[in-house]
Specification:
alpha/beta; Rossmann fold; 4-stranded parallel beta sheet; homotetramer
Chain lengths: ~325, ~325, ~325, ~325
């Protein structure tokens, strides 16, 4: 192993830059050359590859987004595209590849590894929807960003004694909703893993009003959606004003939290170690507080399990 | 003047609590009794009135929203409703009233003053759409909140090399868009006072791309609207990905900035001074850096003028 | 178990309010009466005890500090004081006590448990210096607060091309320094667990300058101290300007992060469960990502181990 | 006028980058060449001068510090040094110079203008200690940074029922203390323009305690200093715990507020306009809400006046 490369792919997540920095500096620290590939697999196919040194990753640990850019590539989904990627990597003399991204990006890396490319994946997505790891890079920041938005909405919702419905990201995973909902003291948390009953929701709101609640905050995960419809229904049934807010892409941005930077640093460091150990087709992550690595095929086959206990704690504390 | 009251009305704005605190503490400092009226004119009609002391407004200067709550009242738009309000104020022996809110709230206060109630208005709205004053309470905080959101969107929009269209509040006033757009380094600012040309917008984006711009941020004021349609059109014409974000109610919340707290303190203090000077039907504000007061009829008749110079500076600096 | 009480003791930490909220609401949810004790063991001795309901803990999850206040008590360190505490608890019919605080507070709880009081401890301190748990409530917030300060210092230190030395809290534990240093991209991290060599430090700075580093950030843990002396020495040896900043008590405050609120909610919930299970003299915590509980005597006997691996990652990534 | 240059000098301030951006882009927009001078007058003497284009100032509007760096120069205080600066400007064919900094920097610019260099100054300093302008670039950000620190200190000070003494920057000017103190609801504000009486301070604290105040926040301006001594004295006289915090250099950093970015944009734009109008030895600023310019000799001769009215409002609202 003499030369490695790193790319980011799929949706960006805060902390990706910290992971890039860790890969580059660890690689250099261990005597490797490190190349950066721009715009994910699309840039790989186009040969957008350049050498990185320590200064290339100076002053980026605190920045959201990814300095390597990211893009989606239709061409890379085809066998022809993947073979082109392999050819480019060989042309540049790259022995090992680090892929930072979500499960879509891992599938891309998996494809390359089938053609003999040594590859390690680092989970970077705000959605926390990758089952083999307790936590993905960007999740902690996204939860805190949602928390900040909730705080602001609570001010205005309390003043108007309205119900606030906030739709947050997470695709089919309810974790952003659950964590931000619990931490934000939301009255109800609606996630795809549990579903909801609009009648029960309205009953809870009316009971809360009787007990003197000045506001009612409902977090809805993207995987359930329909924040506007829920607001209308609540207003109709309870007679209490309700407003929906769909938080959108601000959840992807922002300076990463300490946690995301540290996780990214650990995982980036471990990814390079694995390549140096001659491993391939592995993904790194964190399990029970420990940095782990897992075979990529097995990792992608694991089903996510929802934290039922945490959900029930959130429920018990909410009213 | 022995007993005054204070209420907040209309949409809430960060800094309203600082204004309430200033009214209450200045009143007490000058030997008055101070009553709080809950839920604006609606609460006035219902007699939701309570005595306030120094501790009632302790630890609120940094809080968004309004501890007095706010509400809209259909009844108060009628003559009967207004007379009821007058009767309640008389029943409680209230000699002077401070109304904190936007122009709708000022019209309510104006109505009461026709019936002989001594009244002073304080401009509290994030929209900055009140012509006689350079600045309303809440505007500075809202602009900074939008700025924070823009920063986050820029991260993700840069990473994906997309166009971001952000729709911000302000009703028919483009000030939030203009100030946040200039401060956020937006490539284009679309305000109702100026309109826009979709072709020119697309041309600017394509030219920017040629010059190496990695992102394109467009701020659209609520008074123009249509962020989603603009995004679709841009994507269609330029072939560059575009995403719309409608910021929504988070713009109303949040801890007020230093500026908003100081402005609120100054205006609250001045409002009580005016009541003690025997004035009525006045509104306070800031003009050319000085605290001023103005007859409410004249104030409401002034037409807003848009800051053309600032808009042209924003344009010159944007590309 | 019919009536429980909760107190906070020692230095305050962000997230203590979230823990109080969790204890109160879990207790009520499970049919218990819940009492709040003000000012820690000092307030216990003085009988500053009041009944809490769901509203007592409304709107506090996002607040720093502790609504129950905290204090140090010399009297409670004596046998007489402890017996008085027991008598008061009995007088109020309190069957179980939750103590939120650091190891000093745990010793207080331990003393009460010797007299038969059923007691569970929750680790609340920014210092992260309690060995049996991976994480204490307040640590994550403190690290992020330091990170925010570091960001600000970096701006000015870069502009002046100076060395910044930042002294952070943590008593004899270097964790705040290590985590904030790694996450903040500090060039050097000085912790009591490792010590430092001033000559090596100066050499690193001079080498960094040669490689084009525009700033140099050194984090010093409280347990080492001497930030001002280090600054003088660096200036003298390297000829590069150096400024020391001692962050102080701002590290104890601020709205808790999502992580601290969730950890506090989990631990508060678990503490009440333990009391209901008839357990006593236990402390709750988190180990390998799981909520655990431990005998208080054993827990207090465990020696902290420093995360050598994380420290070496920080070193590898820093230059 | 064909070629202008810009430099930053003295202590850095948030918003300096926004001013640099405005100077560069306005210059280019009006057909000028624009050069950047690094490290202030020191860099001028050393010929650290490079051409800037639109991309040189991309993505900097939100960054604290100054991309042009800043430094102090002993040599430039001498006539020989100044003549060298003039020679360098002539050698580079620079017709006009924009100096961003505080009054020390203005004296440097003034010296150059005596030798015939066309020069305009922009006030950039957090201290707000320049008399001819109502506001300097960086002041609003610094006040909000102090406010954020105050919020955090209040949490912990309230929990411990202690007195917090916070020493803030501002050299001989009490504005940061006054604005942050009023906005932060400080119980006492100590500024060099007014002085203080330690006995009165202690009396106020004791009276506040009697009225149920849970915390006491005292802001001390740098120009008075002695926060630690004040804390000791208070503890001795009142018997209430007191803690001093000296905020230090974090006050210079951080992303500039909207206000500072807009002020910087306006002033940068105006500075270039003045050069194009053939003016020299002018300084720009804001007076009564309007952008103004003033002869540099006259401007530097104006004495600051303290805002007595605002100080008395702060006093009236504080207890």
């Amino acid at each position: 192993m003499k030369k490695i490369a790193v790319l980011t792919s799929g949706g960006d997540a805060p902390g990706m830059n910290a992971a890039i920095r860790a890969v580059v500096r660890t690689g250099l620290d261990k005597g490797l050359s490190v190349m950066g590939i721009q715009r994910g697999f699309s840039g790989l196919i186009n040969g957008e590859i350049f050498e990185m040194d320590r200064r290339s990753v100076a002053d980026i640990i605190h920045r959201g987004g990814t300095i390597l850019r990211t893009a989606r590539s239709e061409e890379f989904r085809t066998e022809a595209g993947q073979k082109k990627g392999v050819a480019i990597l060989n042309a540049f003399g790259i022995d090992g590849l680090v892929v930072i991204g979500g499960d879509g990006s891992f599938h891309g890396g998996q494809a390359l590894s089938k053609y003999g490319i040594k590859m390690v994946g680092i989970p970077g997505t705000i959605d926390n929807d990758i089952a083999y790891t307790d936590c993905t890079i960007g999740f902690d920041t996204a939860v805190n960003t949602v928390l900040d938005a909730i705080n602001k909405l609570r001010d205005t919702s309390t003043s108007h004694e309205r119900v606030s419905i906030v739709e947050v990201m997470g695709r089919n995973c309810g974790d952003i909703a659950l964590y931000a909902g619990l931490a934000g003291g939301a009255e109800s948390i609606i996630v795809p893993e549990k579903g909801y009953d609009i009648n029960l929701l309205c009953k809870t709101i009316l009971e809360g009003k009787l007990r003197g609640k000045m506001h009612n905050l409902i977090i809805v995960a993207e995987g359930v959606g329909g924040a506007n419809e829920i607001a209308s229904k609540i207003e109709e049934v309870t007679g209490i004003g309700a407003r929906a807010t769909i938080l959108g892409h601000i959840q992807r941005g922002g300076s990463p939290t300490a946690n995301d930077r540290i996780l990214a640093s650990r995982l980036g460091y471990r990814a390079v170690e694995l390549l140096l150990e001659g491993k391939s087709a592995r993904v790194v992550g964190v399990k029970d507080g420990k940095i782990i690595d897992e075979d990529i095929d097995e990792a992608l086959a694991i089903k996510r399990s929802f934290d039922e206990k945490l959900y029930s704690i959130a429920e018990a504390l909410s009213y």
